Amino acid sequence: MRSFNVLSIAAVAAFSLIPFVSAAPVDAAVAAAVDVRSVAVAAAADVRARDCPGVATILTDLSINLADPLLGLSYLTPANATKENITPLLQVVVKVSAGAVVDLTALVGLPIETILASVDGTTTVTVDVIAQLLANVLLSIGLILSTLLGVCLDPEILLSVVVDVELGLCLGNLVSAVIALVGGLVDAIVGLLGSLGLILTSLNLQIVGKLLNIC
Fold it and tell me: What is the pTM of this model?
């Protein structure tokens, strides 16, 4: 019986050593895995930051993409400024603007150097530069539509299309996305918008003007 107890104690002692013998290598392996994962996450974040265009690039590209549909709208005459002709052109305006909102949203949480990166990526731009780029977009759309409003034999034709394509919601999202990324934007842009507030009101787009404190 005594020999059994001695063997039992020895066995227990031997098994009790197993966690202590294996603990060090297991902990080291876990630590190494965590380190590797941390490096991978950091690398992925760095790649994401480098691959994302800044606000300046997004707004510059938006202006370029808006050129064709806005030009098409400017060519309309009283004879052909119909709902059927206006709708597809404004749908393109909404589509490219919505695409810009997606790109802007992707910048949330990234370093300010990425958000305010210049178009060539060599430096950062000021809030005033972003304000001017956004003002250019809004004024281009607003002035073309204001002119078209006077071209249409019935202004309600254009106003109904503006509602149908949800232009107000789209431009509101665009403005909100830029405001969320660039502090001080509203104060910087107000002086650049001229009579845009009146134009937005005439187009029933006050939702956009209110975001910028001009309606």
Answer: 0.77
CA distance 75 to 155: 17
Q: What tens-digit pLDDT sequence spans the chain (215 residues)?
A: 444 444 444 444 444 444 444 444 545 544 444 454 443 333 334 444 457 899 999 999 999 999 999 999 999 999 999 999 999 999 999 999 999 999 999 999 999 999 999 999 999 999 999 999 999 999 999 999 999 999 999 999 999 999 999 999 999 999 999 999 999 999 999 999 999 999 999 999 999 999 999 99
Burial track 48-58 (b if 16+ CB lie within 10 A, e otherwise):
ebeebbbbbbb
Tell me the residue type at 50.
R
Which amino acid would we find at residue 136? N
